[in-house]
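In this section we walk through a basic example: taking a raw amino acid sequence and producing a predicted 3D structure, encoded as discrete structure tokens. The instruction is simple. Fold the sequence below.
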Amino acid sequence: MKTILKMYEHLDWANQRILETLQSMEGENQEANRLFSHILFAEKVWITRLQGLDSSRLPIWSSKVDIEVCANLVIQNKKSLTTFLTNISNTDLDKLISYSNSKGQEFKNSVRDILTHVALHGQYHRGQINSRLRADGSEPVNIDYITFVR
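The resulting token sequence is shown next.
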């Protein structure tokens, strides 16, 4: 549980750093915003599933997203994840969660595997954002875990 909690502290820290960078840019980087919103929408979907609720009507991707939508999602997701993580124990990590994906296919995964997926999924797409920023002539955001723990 200690490792998962640290991963989620890093997730929030990395989301905050990406958000601040995207908010401070002159002109909008639509692809970076789209990728960032995907991270946040996916977090919301998985949080909803972990809560045992239906996620089928929640978006995963959006073609055009205002950065303020992302800012609100960062706050909402942090609050929801903090509440969820505060209320689970080590034994809850092996509990199976049943859910349907966006195509209606049913799956079961453990809470531990879902939480690990969400943290890794976000880091993957934050890397894509950094690649897009560099391609557009901006400095990538240092979101390395080791930088976070230093």
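Looking at the output, two observations stand out. The chain has one domain: 2-149. The radius of gyration is 16 Å. In the next section we compare this with other chains.
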